[in-house]
Amino acid sequence: MNGTPGPSLLTRRQALATAAGGLVLVVARPARATPEAMQDVIRTFTGGAKVTEGRVKLDVTLLVENGNSVPLSVSVDSPMTAADHVVRIGVFNEKNPLPDVAIFNLTPRCGRATAATRIRLNDTQMITAIAQMKDGSFWSDTSEVIVTLPACVEG
Amino acid sequence: MGGRASAFLLVGFAALGLGLASLSAQTADAPPSDRKSGFDYMGPDSQAMQKDDLSNPGMLGVLDGEAMWNAPAGTTQKSCAACHGDARESMKGVAAKYPLLDEATKTPIDLVGRIDQCRVDRQQAAALPREGRESLALTAFVGLQSRGMPLAPPDDARLTPFRKAGEALYTRRMGQLNFSCAQCHDDNAGGHLGSAPIPQAHPTGYPIYRLEWQSLGSLQRRLRNCMVGTRAEPFAYGSPEFINLELYLNWRARGMEVETPGVRP
Amino acid sequence: MARALINVPSKAKRGDVVEIKTLMSHPMETGFRTGSDGALVPRNIISRFACTYNGEVVFSAELFPAISANPFISFTTVATESGTLVFSWTDDKGQTQVQTAAITVE
Lengths: 155, 265, 106
What we know:
The structure holds three protein chains of three kinds.
Chain A: H1 7-25, H2 35-46, E1 51-53, E2 56-60, E3 63-64, E4 70-76, E5 86-93, E6 100-106, E7 114-119, E8 125-133, E9 138-147
Parallel strand pairs in A: 1-9, 3-9
Antiparallel strand pairs in A: 2-4, 4-7, 5-6, 5-8, 8-9
Chain B: H1 2-15, H2 44-51, H3 58-70, H4 80-84, H5 87-90, E1 100-102, E2 107-109, H6 111-123, H7 133-144, H8 160-171, H9 181-185, E3 192-193, E4 196-197, E5 208-210, E6 215-217, H10 219-229, H11 240-252, E7 263-264
Parallel strand pairs in B: 5-7
Antiparallel strand pairs in B: 1-2, 3-4, 5-6
Helix pairs in contact in B: 3-7, 8-11
Chain C: E1 4-7, E2 11-12, E3 17-24, E4 46-53, E5 56-63, E6 72-78, E7 83-91, E8 96-105
Parallel strand pairs in C: 2-8
Antiparallel strand pairs in C: 1-3, 3-6, 4-5, 4-7, 7-8
């Protein structure tokens, strides 16, 4: 094979491979919150009450293209009557700088127990939504989100 | 020896998610039927964000641009609308033609340059800093008036040398990683860089709302990101290099539908 | 003035549950980002959103830095009577932006 690169070029190719890997890795940001920090804010939200899995549906794409804007919607199985409705829904994450995402305060006049927003995710992680009912019970759903990194960002 | 060299090359390109095909493939215009907008490479969430004007954050910039269009500016205290009237009529299809030849200088001028020319010469106002919120807002508003229309770069022979210069830049290897635009966006379009799809690089939605930027940005900002990616020294905003590249990219994408303001990851 | 995009159906049948979408122009600066000078960019976010319908709060939200720039919030409300929906976004400094939308209920 004529024109085969010499050893010095091989070294350069290796260097390039490393550089190219770095291209993707350098945009990772430091995480500060931990799953424990998330449990702490959840305890504050619930006042230590028992949280049961169910009735809540957290809808977030498993694989997102950019962690800066992740569409998220949450809905709760509730008649939304004066006697029986969702009072609030808290959304929490385990790896952003802060464990809180949003708290939605609902009323029977919402008609349906649903809310949507767009959130930032620092990294691939678990998201939890917890709904507090009028009767004081708490219900939850958890979803994993895989955050991929965009190509070619500002250096 | 040859085997070892190939193995190392493979490692190098695999790290970028590129195949070895890039070494042999030729650069060529994709036939219109094979052209895909960056929109087509996005996931359903991002596509939905672009398709619904009330979900597309780029439309917030358009609203700003519309207000600017109607606001008096400069020592003349004339608005854009004072001369051009309703942009929905007067600016229809205009952005789809830029860059075009500036008759005064006989060099190509992009839409941002033309807006600035209008501000300085006619409104007697300061030029808007490139890539600033106002410049992006006004170009987004003007760009929107071409949405749904085909990109229509003028078939002007006087532009040919500039477009050729743009094509030469597109195919020229640059930066520490020694990649040309064409190696990713012609030879490996549809492949992946890490987990991100490599699009065909058709400038159909500019200015775009890029989720990475969390704001509107121009084609030149996107090109600068590409250049940083290959570890090249980015060209300056408004430089002849960028305008020549834009001429070539628009020519390469001619006939494709304008999406301004597009959403991209 | 900051721009907002609001989607409220102009007409609805009494008792219908209508979807409302809001998009507010705001950088939602987290306070964790460094600027080009290497210093932390101070936190500046919308921390509270509320919607009233003829004066009564139907939905509100507390927002944290994890909410994307140009915050998008959507929710539903029961079309009870013709009137005005008032949307307010309040930032860390207590400054509030207000937008209104009219709804006709038949």
